[in-house]
Amino acid sequence: MPVLEVRGLSKDFGGLKAVNNFNLTLEEGEIVGLIGPNGAGKTTVFNLITGIFPVTSGEIRFLDRSILGLKPYKIAQLGIARTFQNIRLFKQCSVLDNVRTVFHPKIKYGLVDAILHTRRYHAEEERVTAMSMALLETMSLADRAEMQAMNLPYGDQRRLEIARALAGEPKVLLLDEPAAGMNPSEVGKLVELIRFIRNHFQVTILLIEHQMGVVMNVCERLEVLDFGETIAAGRPEEIRDNPKVLEAYLGKGVTVA
What we know:
Layout: E1 4-13, E2 16-26, E3 31-35, H1 42-49, E4 57-62, E5 65-66, H2 72-78, E6 80-82, H3 95-103, H4 111-116, H5 119-138, H6 154-166, E7 172-176, H7 184-201, E8 204-208, H8 212-218, E9 221-226, E10 229-234, H9 236-239, H10 243-250
Parallel strand pairs: 3-8, 3-9, 6-7, 7-8
Antiparallel strand pairs: 1-2, 1-4, 4-5, 9-10
C-alpha cells in the first residue's frame, strides 16, 4: 500500500490552471524529487497535499485514507509534515523552544497543573525538553539550544525547521527547496542529512529543489512539472537526458554535469 497517493489532482485560480491532472505515488521509504521551472506548480502541489489550498478536483490518499477537506493541522497530526520555501521559524524564541512547541499539543497535563506547577507538570515538561534535545542532538544543533533562532546561520535555520517538522513524528516529510540560500559546503551536508533523515527516522521524503546537484544525488525518482502538468517522470539518469526537461527546466542546449 502506498504511503501517499495523488490522482488527477488539479487546482484552478480563477482562469489560471496552476496544477492539471497531477499524479503521484510515494512508497514507504522513498526519496522523490518534484522539479520544474519557476511557476510550474510545485509548491501548489505541496499546498494541496497539506490542506493549505482546497483541491479543485482529484484525490489525495494518505495511508489509504482520503485527506481531502481536512484542515492543515489535522493533516499534520495524521503524519504529513512540511517545511517552507521561506523559512518559518519562531525567530524570537530559542532553538529549543522552536522544537518544544510541536510537542505541546500532546502534553499530558491540564490547566490547573500548569498554573500550580504540579509534579505532573514538571515531569511532562522534562519529558518534552528531553525529546526536543534529542532531536537537536541528532540535527547537530544541541549546542545552540538556548540561542535565538534568528541568530542561527542560514543553513542551521534550515536544519532547525526540519527538526521541528520531524518532532511531529511524520510518515511523510515534504521539503520545499531545502537548499535555497545555502553555500556549496552546506548543500553537500544537506544531501547527507536528507539520506540520514530517511534512514534514521524511517520517513518518506518528497522534495522540491532547483539545485540539480541535490536532486540528482539524493532522489531515487523525479517528477517534472511544467505549467502545472507532468512532462516527465523516472530515475534521475533518465530525467537528466530528457529533451523536454532540458528545454523546460534547464533551457535549450544545456546539459547536466
